[in-house]
């Protein structure tokens, strides 16, 4: 009987290296969701790393960032398949702990990317410094408002460590550096553009004198922008958005979004795979890989680094 490292018929999702006796390694990359532009850019980075380091990438994630039960199923499925490594962006910092620890107990190295987990059983953590990114957003909005005014936050979803950190950084920076700017309302968009628009509408209705909004994720940003445009408030309410998409770039050009705080999503996917390849090759990858977010305003769109981050030609 052939063992798993000898030549046998190809299984679905696994590419084997012929009958050389060496099986091509497979790394599972599990994003929070698969629909938003941010995750599509992460996917490109992961697949490029797979090609560079000669490993197969299995990309599988839930449709929505709130479906952590689906993420749990995917992780457990990858453990059953005996993939060689798992990179995961956890939808919930607590709910995904047990499946990740089951993977490590099975001898499968795990890298956590984008959003943290309440466990130490991982190889590397590859992420934006989200607290600092939130501070960048706060300082940007402070500049726009001249250091005073009323603002609201369209948050992402409960339990999402990355966006919670952004919201924390934003709130703390305003309290410490802009005492005359007051956060008068916060609502969740639940990783859904329509729900985020409704949340922003609620904030704008309750606070007719609102001066600014911070949206802590791509769907929250799109929803907030739609609400501001629908009420023709783009000249009155300043919007600092997070992440980027084609729609958001159009809104930045149109003035509905005043600034975006943008992550290096491509590098995040690439580095997540690289840390696992290094581990499998007997190296010790860094425990933490910090990626910095960049502030992007309309005047910055012609800059080469900004064009790279936004995938602009």
Structure description:
This protein is an alpha/beta fold. 42% of the residues lie in helices and 18% in strands. The strands form 2 sheets. The chain has a 6-stranded parallel β-sheet, sandwiched between helices. It has a 6-stranded mixed β-sheet with strand order 7-6-8-9-10-12, sandwiched between helices. α1 runs parallel beside α9 (265-280), α2 packs parallel to α3 (97-105) and α4 (130-145) packs across α5 (161-177). The longest helix is centred in the N-terminal third of the chain and has 17 residues, at 37-53. The protein is elongated. It starts with 25 loop residues before the first strand and ends with a helix. The relative contact order is 0.14.
Question: What is the secondary structure topology, with strand pairs?
Answer:
Layout: E1 26-30, H1 37-53, E2 56-59, H2 68-81, E3 85-88, H3 97-105, E4 110-113, E5 125-128, H4 130-145, E6 149-155, H5 161-177, E7 181-188, H6 193-206, E8 212-215, H7 218-230, E9 238-242, H8 246-254, E10 259-262, H9 265-280, E11 288-291, E12 294-296, H10 304-310
Parallel strand pairs: 1-2, 1-3, 3-4, 4-5, 5-11, 6-7, 6-8, 8-9, 9-10
Antiparallel strand pairs: 10-12
Helix pairs in contact: 1-9, 2-3, 4-5, 6-7
């Amino acid at each position: 009987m052939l063992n798993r490292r000898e030549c046998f018929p190809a299984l679905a999702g696994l590419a084997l290296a012929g009958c050389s006796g060496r099986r091509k390694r497979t790394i599972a990359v599990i994003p929070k969701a698969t629909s938003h532009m941010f995750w599509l850019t992460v996917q490109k980075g992961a697949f490029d790393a797979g090609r560079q380091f000669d490993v197969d990438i299995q990309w599988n994630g839930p449709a929505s960032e709130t479906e952590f039960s689906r993420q749990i199923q995917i992780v457990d499925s990858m453990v059953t398949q005996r993939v060689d490594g798992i990179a995961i962006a956890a939808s919930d910092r607590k709910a995904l702990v047990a499946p990740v620890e089951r993977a490590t107990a099975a001898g499968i190295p795990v890298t956590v990317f984008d959003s943290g987990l309440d466990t130490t059983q991982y190889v590397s953590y590859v992420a934006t410094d989200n607290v600092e990114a939130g501070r960048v957003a706060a300082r940007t909005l402070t500049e726009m408002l001249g250091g005073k005014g009323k603002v609201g936050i369209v948050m992402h979803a409960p339990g999402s460590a990355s966006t919670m950190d952004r919201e924390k950084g934003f709130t703390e920076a305003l309290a410490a550096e802009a005492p005359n700017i007051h956060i008068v309302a916060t609502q969740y968009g639940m990783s859904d553009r329509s729900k985020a628009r409704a949340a922003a509408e609620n904030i704008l209705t309750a606070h007719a004198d609102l001066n600014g909004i911070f949206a802590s994720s791509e769907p929250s940003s799109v929803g907030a922008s739609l609400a501001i445009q629908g009420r023709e408030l783009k000249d009155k309410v300043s919007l600092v958005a997070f992440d980027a998409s084609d729609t958001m770039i159009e809104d930045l050009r149109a003035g509905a979004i005043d600034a975006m705080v943008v992550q290096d999503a491509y590098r995040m996917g690439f580095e997540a795979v690289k840390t696992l390849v290094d581990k499998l090759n007997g190296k010790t990858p860094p425990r933490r890989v910090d990626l910095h977010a960049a502030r992007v305003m309309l005047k910055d769109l012609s800059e080469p680094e900004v064009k790279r981050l936004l995938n602009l030609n």
